Amino acid sequence: MRWTGVAAVVLIGLAAAAEMQSAAVRWATDDVAVIATVVQISLVVHVAAGLTFVVWMSQARARSELITSGGGHRFPAVWVFGGWLIPFGNLFIPQMVMQDIWRGSDRSRPAVELEKRPKSRLVTAWWLCFVASAATSVLPDAEAPLWTTISAALGVAAAVLAGLMIGKVTGMLLSEPTASPAPAA
Amino acid sequence: MGYEAVRPARGAGTAATVLIWVAAASEAVIAVQLWAAVEGDPATFAWWFSLAVHVTAGIAFVVWMSQTRLNSDVITSKHQHRFTNMWVFVGWILPFANLYIPYAVMQDIWRGSDRARPQVALRQRPQSQLITAWWICFMASNVLASVPGPDVVTWGTLSAGLGVVAAMLCGRMIRQVNDRQAAEQPLTAGA
C-alpha cells in the first residue's frame, strides 16, 4: 500500500503539472493542434493518476476495516470505485468514502463508533479544491486562458492536499498498534 | 482521423444495447436482493458484478458514440457541434461535466445525422425528445442510486426501475441513430 500511495502522489503531481501546462499554453498560443496535444497528454496522465489513486483507496479501505469494523462505513466497498463514475454521485460519494476510511484508520478511539468520530478537515479541503477545479473547467467559457489558469491553480491545491492526505492515512494505517492500557474493546 | 464515408455502427450499437440491458438487469437483481436480505447484509457479489457490467457497458456505449460521431461528421460539418470530439469521452468522466455534456453531445450527433435538412444549420435543427427522455431517466436513476443511508432499499428499487426505463430508451435511441446514419437518401424529400 505504501508504494501505491507513492505512485498515486507522483501521478497526481504530474496531473497537476499537466493542468498548469494546459493553462500556460493557452496564454502562449492560439494553435489548436498544440493545445489539443497538451490537453490529450493531460487527459492520459489524469486517467493514470485516477486509477492509481482508486487502487490506493481500495487498499486503504480494506486495511481500515481491519482496524475498525467495516459496519460503520456509509457506502459498501464497491462504491470506492463506483462513486467516482456515477454522474451526480461523484460530486460527494468519494469524499464520504474517504472520510470513513480516515475515521476507520484511527487507532486512538477503539471504543468510539466510526460514525461518531471526528471527520478530517484535510479531506474536506481536498475535496472542495478538487470539485471547484472540475467545476471551473466546464464553465461555458472554460477554454479561456483565465479560467484554465484558475482551474489549474485549484487543481494544484487539490493535488498538494491529496498528497498530504495520502501520506497521513498511509501513516495511520501502517503504524504499529500502540500498547494501549485500555481493555480490549 | 475522420471517416471518408459513413460506416454504420451496427456492431458497437448491438454490443452496447445488450450490455446496457445486462447492467439494468443487474440493478434489478440488487434491488430484489436488498428486499430479501436480512438487515445490513449487502449482496456483495451482485454489487461487484453490477460495477463490472456498468463499466463494460459504458465503454461499449462510448465506442458506439465515437463511431456515430465520426459518421455524423461525414453527413454534417463537424464544426457545428457544440463540443469537440474529445468530449465524447471526457464528458463522461469529469464531475459536473457528466451531468450535461454527454446529453448535449448525443443531441448534436442526432442532429448531425439528419440528411433531410442539409441547408439548416445543426443548432437550428430540432432535438430528439427520445434522447431527452433517456437522459432524464438515466440521471434520475443515478441521483437515487447515490442516496446514502437507511432508505437504500426504497431508493435503490426506484433507481433500478428508472435504470430499466433508461436502458429501454437507450436501446431505441441507438437503433434510431444507426438507422438515420445508414439511410442512403434523405428520408423525406421536403422539410
Automatic annotation (TrEMBL), chain A:
Record's protein name:
DUF4328 domain-containing protein
Kindly give the InterPro entries that the UniProt entry links to this protein. Answer: DUF4328 (IPR025565)
The major lineage groups are:
Bacteria, Bacillati, Actinomycetota, Actinomycetes, Pseudonocardiales
Which residue intervals define the domain DUF4328 in the entry? 22-169
Q: Which UniProt keywords apply?
A: Membrane, Transmembrane, Transmembrane helix
Residue ranges annotated as transmembrane are: 33-56, 146-166
Give a Pfam family name.
DUF4328
UniProtKB/TrEMBL annotation, chain B:
Q: Which residue spans traverse the membrane?
A: 12-38, 45-66, 86-106, 153-171
Indicate whether Transmembrane appears among the record's keywords. Answer: yes
Domain annotation DUF4328: ranges: 45-176
- InterPro entries per record: DUF4328
In terms of Pfam families, this protein maps to: DUF4328 (PF14219)
In terms of superkingdom, the source organism counts as: Bacteria
Q: Which UniProt keywords apply?
A: Membrane, Transmembrane, Transmembrane helix
Could you identify this protein by its name? DUF4328 domain-containing protein
